[in-house]
Amino acid sequence: MELQALRTSRPELREAIDLQIEILELYRRVQGRVPVPWIEISTTHLTQNAETGRPLVTFDAIPVELTDLRLLVRQTAEAMRRHGVLDDSDHARVQALGRDMGLLVAVGKWYRTTSEQHVDLPSREPDDEDPVLGQVLTLAMRPFLSRCAEVVQQRPELSSWTCGHCAVCGGDPDFSVITAAGDRLLICGRCGLQWAFDASVCPFCRTTPSRISSFATPDGKYRVEACDACRRYVKAYDVRKGGRPVMPLVDSIVTLTLDAAAMQRGYVG
Asked: Which of 150-154, 204-208, 226-230 is least confident?
């Protein structure tokens, strides 16, 4: 409903909104069939993993159903092509992978590589990630990863996680929310987990306030916290001024103009 209302009030965002609506409809078809996974969660386990930066969920623990994954990969690629996000050659390549018997192997390799991107591994292989495939898989895997996030989100032990990347899947935050108490919760761009992180520190390089730049929309509902050290930024929604809970899929589209402003200043998301 929020996306439909936004489509009327912000016609210049219609293409992005229509794509988001299609992706949400795909999720809706699959989400109810995804079982609740078993994930080891304890304060000790979380603290130990936070020390090394290693996320909790291995690929084997994700409740992936191959038939649903094939559907999501193919239909996500189709929606992205239809809305101008994928060109025809990339679309054909992803469609072929979606029908290939090696899909699960390819997704497992992608997940292991990206989930351990913040872990210091002496034997790490060179990063040969395919950005187009990564974009499709990030969307296609969300129903499965979000189920894992639901399990972790409700556990009080999550407060032991002190990293700037996700405790569930190792993803980077692509949005954040300022709570009614003034705290910042980072929101994972892959699984949707929300976790507390110091608002005065860059989650990407741990730079402190002296190197953080901030700018906001005129009404103060949305802002950008950008790091002058690593040149990364994360957007935020302030519930104290917004009057409703954060809706990452909506708020990320509403703030596309903030992305443009950040990129004009030399920052990257």
From this structure: 204-208
Mapping DSSP to helix (H, G, I), strand (E, B) and coil, where does residue 255 land?
coil
Q: CA nearest 114: which of 85, 145, 91, 80?
A: 145
The residue to which tokens 């060109």 are assigned: 87
CB of 64 closer than 8 Å to CB of 176? no
Structure tokens at 92: 């054909």
**Contact between residue 194 and residue 158 where contact means Cβ atoms under 8 Å apart:** no
Q: Do 132 and 80 meet the contact criterion of CB atoms below 8 Å apart? A: no
DSSP conformational letter for 156:
G
**What does the DSSP 8-state code read for residue 178?**
E
Tell me the β-bridge partners of 238.
Answer: 178
Antiparallel, parallel or unpaired: β 212-216 and 173-178? unpaired
Q: What is the pLDDT of residue 40?
A: 86
Contact 146, 192 (CB under 8 A): yes
Count the alpha carbons within 13 Å of 108 in the hemisphere toward its beta carbon. 14
User: What is the rounded distance in angstroms from the CA atom of residue 106 to the CA atom of residue 132?
Assistant: 13
Instruction: Identify which of 98, 45, 44, 54 has the alpha carbon closest to the alpha carbon of residue 76.
Output: 98
> CA 193 to CA 152: how far, in whole Å?
8
Backbone phi, psi, residue 198, to 5°:
-50, 120
Distance CA 145, CA 137 (A): 11
